[in-house]
Amino acid sequence: MSLGFPNKKATYTKKANKANLGMDLEEAINDTNSYYLSNDIAVIHKKPTPVQIVKVDYPMRSKAVITEAYYKIPSTTDYNGIYKGKYIDFEAKENHNKTAFPLANIHPHQIEHLDKIIKHGGIGFLIVYFSHTDEYFLTPFEVVKRFWDNKEKDRKSIPYNVFKEEAHLIKLSYMPRLDYLKVVDELYFKKD
Amino acid sequence: MSLGFPNKKATYTKKANKANLGMDLEEAINDTNSYYLSNDIAVIHKKPTPVQIVKVDYPMRSKAVITEAYYKIPSTTDYNGIYKGKYIDFEAKENHNKTAFPLANIHPHQIEHLDKIIKHGGIGFLIVYFSHTDEYFLTPFEVVKRFWDNKEKDRKSIPYNVFKEEAHLIKLSYMPRLDYLKVVDELYFKKD
What predicted TM-score, i.e. pTM, was given to this entire model? Predict the structure, then answer.
């Protein structure tokens, strides 16, 4: 029964994978967007990380080097673009909490931004990844907004069962890795 | 007639203004977008400058400092967003050349990007500022594309008179400073 070392190694690998999940969600979405782009399905890009540049050096014969900069709080979401003529806008969040998604994971600016997008006729949502169950949920903005608006008097998180009932599972596959536009089709283009 | 010093000062001020024009175009557009946003007219943002972050320091009790980073070539345009339910995408360029706008000012990636945006049903254009005449032209992507596609056999720039004839003047005003959506209305929403 006791296999010793090989067993230990297996445990280690699993842990290493878990630690990488943050990068994996972004990578899965970027890969998917590349697939959409090269197959002429949609044009959706991740916005660059907002950075405040303070100092730039120009060493001779080489390109400019930024030597002092700081991360800025994003004023919008990470992803936007166009799909079937419609403006699409979303934020992707990983969640290591088992029972709920804490609203503190979202910046107030991002909620305001998505709210405006919906009002102007765009499609807005969150992709929330629950690492404990390995599930990706496309969560319509309306669901997030309902909890956000009540967070002062009510709870400060969205329970897992709300995702199960009101969000939509995105299935992982080979190509594209995370076909979230399939869910967008079902939710926003059924009547078209 | 010769007023000496005051006259000299006036000349100096003018030169200083000219040198600042680069910032002014971006500022004029950002101000305009803020106006559109706060007046619920459109949600259009400038994308952060793409930067490749190489080294980050985490000094104790203070926020992360990026100590080595490089500018990356942008893979898309600088501005995008939503207006009247439509996806909008554009690039803004300053031009100090008197007789033409050199196509070398645009990255091939940006042309490819705008081309795809149009194919997917979005609105795409360039805002080109001619500093010599102090004119801002909203230039439909189709006009730019025609010259871009012929640049190997034909000329490598778009003549000023093409802007006069096929692009559309954006008037400067107080609020918003550069009301480019007025031109967008005339060009893309006339039949709606």
Answer: 0.85
